[in-house]
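User: Structure please.
Assistant: Input sequence and predicted structure:
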Amino acid sequence: MSRLDGRVVIVTGAARGIGRAFAARCAAEGARVVAADINASGARDAAEAIVAAGGEALAVRVDIARYESAEAMVQATLERFGRLDVLVNNAAMMADVARRPFDQIPDAEWDAMMAVNVRGTWNCCRAAVGPMRGQGSGSIVNVASDTILFGVPGLLHYVASKGAIAAMTRSLARELGIDGIRVNTLAPGFTETEAALAQEAGVAALRVQGRALQRMEVPEDLTGTLVYLASADSDFVTGQFIAVNGGYALH
């Protein structure tokens, strides 16, 4: 028996990189997966790959910055699979921003970062909590970043948004525990994805050198921790922050 048999999992940002690895691993563990992304064709590709491997999947286009879109994603999940057990808030904005001093970040870029990373996570949580409350159970995994443990110059808005997600997790865990819903934060380190390497190619070697485990992190390094947080193995774990970074920041 696989660890996620019978569970329905939404993964946002599933079109590529870490999100796509999350979706594939959840399906391999027996979950029925909703691959959600603002990139509709990428979401379809992720879902089709799961189906081709023998799993069950649904592709949904979602703009998490809009509550109505997050709500429609959850409704499509319920219409197809009848329940929602796990929400993985992985979608985020970073790849399209440049490093710059904090006092030179344009207002519009700050607002866009917060709209996607912070409000988007909040939107998905409030859209998902209804069916989870109805079932008396659920797991929400908010994907943050280990950058909040040590700070990164030039990316204040990104780091601040991920810090907000970690704080949101703790408050949500307190509010939703009475409903049997667990909420935890998974914080990746610098991970080898197309988007990350395009944005931060120059720091990859430095990150490897600073790790206790001195190799590049790949998306599959994160999937085991995600499955743990999504499964019954973590039924008494909530409000926690788990950094998966090879020991770059020890938390």
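The chain has a mean pLDDT of 95.
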